[in-house]
Design brief:
Elements: E1 11-14, H1 30-43, E2 47-51, H2 57-66, E3 75-81, H3 93-100, E4 105-111, H4 114-121, H5 125-141, E5 145-151, H6 153-159, H7 161-173, E6 178-183, H8 190-204, E7 207-212, H9 219-228, E8 233-236, H10 250-260, H11 274-285, E9 302-303, H12 306-314, E10 332-333, H13 341-351, H14 360-374, H15 383-393, E11 402-410, E12 420-428, E13 431-439, H16 442-457, E14 465-473, E15 484-491, E16 496-503, H17 506-525
Parallel strand pairs: 1-2, 1-8, 2-3, 3-4, 4-5, 5-6, 6-7, 7-8, 9-10
Antiparallel strand pairs: 11-12, 12-13, 14-15, 15-16
Helix pairs in contact: 1-2, 1-11, 5-7, 6-7, 8-9, 13-14, 15-17, 16-17
Bound molecules: acetyl coenzyme *A and pyruvic acid (PYR).
Acetyl coenzyme *A binds near residues 19 and 82.
Length: about 525
């Protein structure tokens, strides 16, 4: 693993499956881990710290399974600690488990901070140095490339720089391929990380890396400062999960290094995979990706304020630092009360491409949106409802059905799994259909009964499924009489769309969103949208 001075390669190491899984609410199955390894391999991440074989059978099984799964771009790294105190490496169960993982690369972490040696390991400073060198030497002797994680390096260096340097020298002299300086407590300032890294690069020589945590929100900045100071190996997790406040976010670091600082991390054709990889990893982790996440969040290239939207249409560089396509993301124009005609025009043109900005209907639609937003509607995330509203103003909406009546009955007991029943009457032209269905709660029952009734007239609705349901109180001051906004996400297996409904009655708000979701599907199918 040598840095190529011509292309200035920075080697990324993703630890989503090791340090990431130390994050709150993150738990991966072996299958999840394999799925994430495949995504990172496709993304071109050279090192994947996949697990800690001494932590339990799951990671042992993972490394076993991975022996028969070839990777194109990545190398798996097994992770573990230096040998225990007063123990020979060959007798240390953790080290034996690390070797048994069978990976060419291993990471071992050791203590750099004298206080930790004294109070956590409860041994002498000399024994800690021996633990580091024995461990690294033993692994090197067994043919492993060792990435040495110098735990708490920056805290250690602040308190006792001489000893901190002795620990990393011990690892280097024992044959470590790369010495990684860890800001384990995540509280070192970027300037300090840069200055200390520069000292280490100068005094230690060879490959130096960086591993930062985000406890003061500076993990990305500190990692970049370390690279500027000469580090050429950067550890982090792809969407920032990790112990406490998380690890340095590689989906930010990668494009900054490559697009802003001129380093090479992945092949140019792999960069546009970035957004898809981040979203895929978030999905598998069952965590919602923060929409404001740089580069990959759904809001990273979203424009809401009317003046910004107008300017972006004139020249995208006015409010976008890169073309979103470079990282596989896309621009979103959000329609809201702070939007102007330019923002709206963008949405109306999707339905009527020849419409002009000065067409009076644009102003009428804008007025309706403002009025609806006063009632609690919000169209930013409910594009399907917005399209129906626009279609109505363009006099092109042909309602496919009318919901005449509904009734809900709930079982009056305390069993939380009790069923609700909904009865719904729908008319289409001269025909009508009355249907009942049961569900886990009134909204579920209503959704099922409405879809069942509409399916009688439009069989395509059978494929439609509600996939997400969110309720937000709009005016909290009126307590249980508050107005609520319901957002529902629907899919027909090919497309996913979101609709909105509001009311003081949660059932009515839900029903409005459900009716819009079916109407949207039918309008798409008949070519109106
Ligand atoms: C900064 C980091 O993220 S480092 C990675 C931390 N990750 C984890 O801890 C997750 C995986 N860990 C585990 O599954 C368990 O801790 C195991 C299986 C490894 C060890 O379990 P146990 O034997 O029960 O030990 P336990 O977790 O209670 O205590 C940790 C031990 O590791 C020792 N230790 C801590 N750091 C190091 C180190 N760098 N090198 C060697 N030993 C260390 C501690 O001194 C303590 O030993 P002691 O009990 O003799 O005082
Ligand atoms: C090794 C590691 O994860 C840390 O020091 O933060």
């Amino acid at each position: 693993m040598q840095a190529n001075p011509q292309s200035q390669r920075v080697w990324l190491c993703d630890s989503s499956l090791r340090d990431g899984s130390q994050g709150k609410q993150i738990a991966f199955s072996v299958a999840d881990k394999i799925d994430i390894i495949r995504a990172l391999d496709e993304q071109g991440i050279p090192f994947i710290e996949a697990g800690n074989p001494s932590a339990g059978p799951k990671d042992v099984q993972l490394f076993e399974r991975m022996r028969s799964i070839p990777l194109q771009n990545s190398r798996l790294v097994a992770f573990g600690a230096t040998r225990r105190k007063n123990c020979r490496p060959q007798d240390d169960v953790g080290l034996q488990a690390l070797l048994a993982a069978g990976t060419e690369y291993v990471t071992v972490f050791g203590k750099s901070w004298d206080m930790q040696v004294d109070q956590v390991l409860r041994t002498t400073l000399e024994e800690n140095l021996a633990m580091i060198s024995d461990t690294v030497a033993n692994l090197v002797a067994q043919g492993r490339q060792v990435l040495y994680d110098a735990e708490h390096f920056f805290d250690g260096y602040r308190h006792n720089p001489t000893y901190a340097m002795q620990t990393v020298r011990a690892a280097r002299q024992a044959g470590a391929t790369c010495v990684i300086l860890c800001d384990t407590n995540g509280a070192a300032l970027p300037a300090e990380v840069g200055a200390v890294t520069a000292q280490v690069v100068r005094q230690l020589g060879g490959e130096v890396g960086i591993h930062c945590h985000d406890d003061i929100g500076c993990a990305v900045a500190a990692s970049l400062a370390a690279v500027e100071a000469g580090a050429r190996h950067v550890q982090g997790t792809f969407v920032g999960y990790g112990e406490r406040c998380g690890n340095a976010n590689l989906s930010t670091i990668l494009p900054v290094l490559q697009l802003k600082m001129g380093y090479s991390c992945v092949a140019p054709q792999q960069l546009p995979l970035l957004t898809g990889t981040a979203r895929h990893i978030a999905d598998i982790s069952n965590v919602i990706l923060r929409s404001s996440l740089p580069f990959v969040g759904s809001g990273a290239f979203s424009h809401k304020a009317g003046m910004h939207v107008d300017a972006v249409h004139k020249n995208s560089q006015t409010f976008e630092h890169i073309d979103p396509g470079q990282v596989g993301n896309e621009r979103h124009i959000l329609i809201s009360e702070v939007g102007g005609k330019a923002a709206l025009l963008h949405s109306v043109k999707k339905i009527q491409p020849d419409i002009k900005k000065d067409d009076p209907v644009i102003e009428q639609i804008r007025e309706t949106i403002k009025k609806k937003e006063m009632e609690g509607y919000q169209y930013e995330s409910a594009e399907a409802s917005l399209k129906l509203l626009i279609l109505g103003h363009l006099k092109r909406l042909k309602p496919h059905f009318k919901l005449d009546m509904y009734r809900i009955m709930g079982e009056q007991n305390s069993n939380i799994f009790s069923l609700s029943t909904a009865i719904v009457k729908v008319t289409v032209g001269d025909g009508w259909e009355m249907t009942a269905d049961e569900g886990k709660g009134p909204v579920n029952a209503l959704d099922k009964a409405t879809r069942k009734a509409v399916t009688k007239f439009y069989p395509a609705i059978q494929k439609v499924r509600l996939i997400d349901y969110k309720v937000r109180v709009v005016d909290q001051n009126t307590a249980s009489a508050a107005r609520v906004r319901v957002l529902i996400e629907t899919s027909d297996g090919e497309e996913t769309w979101t609709t909105v409904g509001t009311s003081r009655d949660i059932i009515k708000a839900s029903l409005r969103a459900i009716v819009d979701s079916l109407e949207y599907k039918l309008s798409r199918d008949d070519g109106s949208l």
